[in-house]
Sequence to fold (361 residues):
Amino acid sequence: MEQAVGEPMGDQVMRTRLTGDIARSKKCTVIGGSGFLGQHMVEQLLARGYTVNVFDVRQGFDNPHVRFFLGDLCSQQDLYPALEGVSTVFHCASPSPSSNNKELFYRVNFFGTKNVIETCKKAGVQKLILTSSASVVFEGIDIKNGTEDLPYASKPIDYYTETKILQEKTVLGASDPERNFFTTAIRPHSIFGPRDPQLVPTLVEAARKGKMKFIIGDGKNLVDFTFVENVVHGHILAAEHLSQDAALSGKAFHITNDEPIPFWSFLSRILIGLNYEPPKYHLPYWVVYYLALLLSLLVTMISPLVQIQPTFTPMRVALAGTFHYYSCEKAKKLMGYQPLVSMDEAVEKTVRSFHHLRKVE
Fold:
């Protein structure tokens, strides 16, 4: 940069430094950027003028505006190049909850996240935003408009959630504003949307096999389902507000569509949109719950002889038959969060994107 005529050298150095700081502030890395949430995150960040790195075990898409770094989350040697020169890290890498691989859950969610924190500090990263889960406070009983003040579940719904609790505690505990390191955790609930590899494909597969005929309970239990674009919006707001308000650091925030919907109504809307019959026969909640409980006891008894991973568990029944929806008031007040996409529009966009799964008469 040439020095302007008459400009003192100190002013030139200061201007150069400020320009560098501004440029760095728009540089970020999405860990897990090849996944469902990660890809949507990358797209919205690019649209908002960010320079984006992706770190993942695989390259899930091609984009000339993105730098890809492939490697093991638990290796600082692999991770460091992706974080060097970056101000913000979005950590949304996680194994699929349906994998039932306890060792993998612990390694990635806990040990891998500790490595992310250490590498962020070593690379001079200022902000770390974690994708957590509202399920970290859910124990299988009704939660209505739950706030972030609820305690962590002492009996998590599964081992995956148990490691997400460890992960969130580790990230929030690493907050150190005095050393310019800010952390926060975003807690979405039941993310859905275009390219979702879990919820819609699993629902359609069950419908094709004739397993979507029954409603557990009276069907009135309200649940949060959160459109992926709203989840991304919450993450980016958190990153942008962390640098302005250190009081946000070390805190968790619920991010939902802010439109709780009956669990079975949501599933029915997706199924009907894809030309499948919605469930219509009711089964009493407590009957189904105790059947699942008996089955889990039986599995425990025979586990020394036979290893079985039942999908019909008391916690799965609780997820389908209880109220669990959460307040976004904290995110609204402190970050100005408002959902960008309404539930009606979100369902329409999602159904349209899965046209290839539509039932042909």
The longest strand covers residues 51-56. Residues 26 and 171 are 22 Å apart (CA to CA). The chain has a mean pLDDT of 91.
